[in-house]
Amino acid sequence: MDFTHLPHGDVTLANVTVPACLLGQDGDLVRTDISITGGRIGPPQAIAVDMQGAMVFPAFVDMHTHLDKGHIWPRSPNPDGSFMGALTTVRADSSARWSAADLRPRMSFSLRCAYAHGTRAIRTHLDSIAPQDDITWPVFRELQADWAGRIDLQAACLIGCDKWTDDSGAFGHTADLVAATKGGVLGMVTYPMADLRDRIRGFFAQAEARGLNADFHVDETMDASVETLRDIAELKMETGFSGRVVVGHCCSLSAQDEDRAMDTLDLVARAGIDVVSLPMCNLYLQDRTPQGTARTPRRRGITLVHEMRARGIRVSFASDNTRDPFYAYGDMDMLEVMREATRIGHLDHSRADWTTSFLTDPAATCGFDAPSLAEGAPADLVIVKARSWTELFARPQADRIVLRGGRQIDRTLPDYAELDELMRT
Predict the structure, then answer these.
(1) Which residues are catalytic?
(2) Which positions fall inside the Amidohydrolase domain (predicted)?
(3) Region 379-392 average pLDDT
């Protein structure tokens, strides 16, 4: 149950706590009032509610998810918690089960969770190796239409670089499916190959010809010798690719020699590439050892977010996988992502504007409308009974209030039992 019930209609939320950076101010947290009129943030209203310091955020942006994989864990668990265990298990599940009738309810379930938790925009990656692309992309378009006005949806195709072809092959058809979808993004997973640079050049050419942005899964490994991020940065500058480019994961940077890693980040900054960090999934997968081995993981896989921000690289955080072989947990909750990213990445005792990495930064990278607390912005808000960062991150904030268009929404989460029929093996 929400920690308080707000009156319907125009109201002033008096005495709230807001990150100063969201108001364009210096400092950490500030006390202020936020007024709602006609579903938007507006001038002070006659009715006021003392919020007693409750913290307020605009609704969140989750820019890297995998809605098509979500919630398959009960029928297809990761056998050993490893990256390869996840990869092989998902491939087997998708080839056997991923019909429209299977995808739609699982993807809808995740969207209902995200909406209840306070997310207003999502980019999902969709496995797109033929013939799966012709199954999944029509389902995504249906969901995009169904959720219009509640969650803005984008999708990026997902293929390994070894599956890439020019327009005469299967990937040309996939690229056309992406281009025919509102907000479509061309995506690829990169890993070392003898002709990788040629493949990335061709990929950039396809995206450029269709006016698409690019989104890469990059170096999701603790092998310090894997440096495909350098190839992407160099080739973006070499080709003059004009679209936005975002890279996700970049785990191998954390295992590399300091000078080499910093040189790579200088390249990324010069290339104008954005980064999305997925700390919960990377913490789950990286540096695992076989079951029965008495070894604690040392390297945890989070990329070099502090060094990136220091170079002016735009950094975001996102959910990534949800209850699938790549991550057994998660609930599409960006407050959980914020809490865990702060703990894992030591965002505390650092700069005061990390909040933007869950709001305005991912919106700018993806081209979503910017979340805002400025007058005239939609009153799409997440309100939590916490007056400081330590109160915010100490609890899951399960009694949060979510406003959409200034109205308190029903935050009842869907019951996992709804998916039981799909989990039968």
Answers:
(1) 220
(2) 49-96, 192-407
(3) 98
